[in-house]
Amino acid sequence: MRPLSLGPQRREVCPQAALRTASLHKWREVYPQRHLKCRQPNLRYGLGHNPPDIGWLLARYREARAALEAAGVGHVPCMNDTLAGNFMLNDRQEIMLVDFEYASNNDPFYELGLWFGEMFFPPEIEAELLEEYFGRLDPQIEARVWIGKALADMKWSTWAMVQSCVSKLDFDFHKYGVWKHMRARQVMHDPRWESWLRAV
Questions:
Q1: What are its GO cellular component terms (predicted)?
Q2: Going from the N-terminus, what domains does the chain have, and what CATH number goes with each?
């Protein structure tokens, strides 16, 4: 066993999401679309082309960021990659997490939102898990987790659009990114979005 080093405490909202957005802009600077040899060149939108509603999506991201920063954000060690495939279960029902490439200090509500989104838990299971984790369930907790879901999908959609042009893996990253954008829209279009922003 080794002691866990928390490292420097960063105060920005969901640093993983912010870093992925920044990395996309950097890639555009280094590889303008006319020079970029994308592995999937016939994309409706990709590294050099934003989805048609990118302005709306980024406006919602800025709303969420402002609300969370005003409320205050705590940071704890997070895995930041809670895919189902990163949970190993043995015959003794013991769980081991693998793949800590993206681990960092982050907002725990973002981590929970990411995990719930990847696992497709039904609402009653999400509620049960939140109550077990926090010892209670209230509108603020639910709001922060829902916002975390949207920010996580924004982050991974950005990551996927970069990967669609630079990765050598045989995987349709573009399709994955479009799907993640769609899920972020669903949360941000939810009629409860404004109330979630107020509740955080």
A1: cytoplasm
A2: 15-199 (3.90.1200.10)
